[in-house]
Design a protein that fits this description.
two-stranded antiparallel ribbon; 13 helices; 2 strands
């Protein structure tokens, strides 16, 4: 009986990992694929490898939090763990069907919290610590990105000069005995360097995704003692790789082309700030939502860039008012020198509507918030009113 339940648990864990791969691939490599720097297949390969590295070396800390910190081990049994993972996977699958990378961390925490509330065993102190970091992390992302946007973003944009292309930047030369990857004709050195930076940052985000999200697939099984940590991480990462190669293509399309015309230089800054915050919190066992952190990073970066129309002295004296404008990130083209602080007028700053597709953005926000709620309510109602679990 135990062996059968474990087999079912592993199947459900694979289902969860599959959907994590679909959700996380778009976040990690959407900008690179949208800029024709990387193919979807190449993104899937890199996603699988770096997710495993992050999951293997940092992921266990988050597994311990989700598997033992929120509810006692005698409540998170193999049976209840399977149901928790089912709701995690089902909710993420719903988001992936719409091509939206939902927050796997919020969904996992919500599912386990549903179990804890239904059984009256939820560790509210641990839950409060997690939620507190969910509030603090986006604020930190906003202000760090705001400082970068005001003082460093124009310089980064001028030096790196990462731009989107209509054709692929790299091609495979199969004329020789061994295929070689090379830049297409007409590509200059700055484009090559810029493309390598975009891909490198994507790998870093995939690493942070593994650190934070591998727990969402296996924490209930590991916490119940039914599966060892090492084999659990391997199972989760294999499932993530399959998801990256299949359903991940949908989220790559959404994040790479549909939702925003965010300049690639800005995307690199946002991804770097967000991945660093997520990796740091994962190292101390806090599951955090990369999507929300990245969104606040975008807003902070745009606000910081918009404040360059006003000097600090003028702002203190009330001579100038600065409005939040994410569209400020499109004020100059890649490689273009920006005016000094205070030398730019508000009229020179594009509106946010020039940067985002409002309908797609609204759809993404609604689904991203609906998915964790769906998992929490489903788990709570199941454990509260289905007597088979004995809770």
């Amino acid at each position: 009986m135990i062996e059968t339940l474990l087999a079912v648990g592993i199947i459900v864990a694979v289902f969860v990992g599959y959907n994590i791969g679909g959700a996380t691939t778009g976040v990690s490599f959407g900008p690179a694929v949208g800029a024709r720097v990387l193919s979807k297949a190449g993104a899937a390969v890199l996603m699988a490898f770096f997710f495993f590295v992050g999951g293997w070396f940092i992921g266990p800390a988050v597994v311990d939090t989700l598997g033992e910190g929120l509810v006692p081990g005698d409540v998170l049994t193999l049976e209840t763990g399977i149901v928790v993972m089912f709701f995690i996977g089902l909710a993420l699958f719903a988001g992936n069907l719409f091509g939206v990378p939902a927050s796997t961390s919020m969904t996992a925490v919500g599912s386990i919290a549903g179990l804890g509330m239904a059984s009256g065993t939820l560790d509210w102190a641990t839950m409060g610590e997690i939620v507190s970091w969910w509030i603090v992390a986006p604020i930190v992302a906003f202000w760090v990105s705001g400082v970068i946007g005001r003082y460093f973003y124009p310089t980064i944009n001028e030096w790196v000069a990462i731009s989107r292309r209509e054709t692929h930047l790299w091609e495979v030369d199969r004329s020789g005995a061994v295929p070689r990857v090379r830049a297409v004709e007409g590509t200059d050195r700055r484009e090559v360097v810029g493309s390598l930076i975009v891909v490198a940052i994507g790998c870093y985000v995939a690493f942070s995704g593994g650190a934070s999200n591998v727990a969402n697939a296996i924490a209930p099984l590991v916490g119940s003692g039914a599966l060892e940590m090492g084999p659990g991480v391997i199972v989760a990462c294999i499932a993530v790789a399959v998801g990256a190669f299949t359903i991940g293509r949908r989220t790559l399309e959404t994040m790479g082309n549909d939702i925003t015309n965010l300049p690639l230089t800005a995307a690199v800054v946002v991804m770097t700030v967000s991945a660093t915050i997520v990796t740091a919190l994962s190292a101390i066992g806090i599951p955090v939502q990369l999507v929300v952190v990245a969104t606040m990073s975008i807003i902070g970066l745009g606000w910081g860039r918009a404040t360059r129309t006003t000097t600090v002295s003028d702002a203190v004296r009330g001579r100038e008012e600065t409005t939040v404008s994410i569209g400020a990130l499109t004020a100059e083209h890649e490689g273009e020198r920006a005016p000094a602080i205070g030398e730019e007028s508000v009229e020179d700053i594009p509106k946010a509507s020039d940067l985002f597709d409002p309908s797609t953005t609204a759809r993404v926000i609604v689904i991203q918030n609906f998915v964790p709620v769906l998992a929490t309510i489903g788990a709570f109602l199941t454990f509260r009113f289905v007597p088979i679990f004995g809770i």
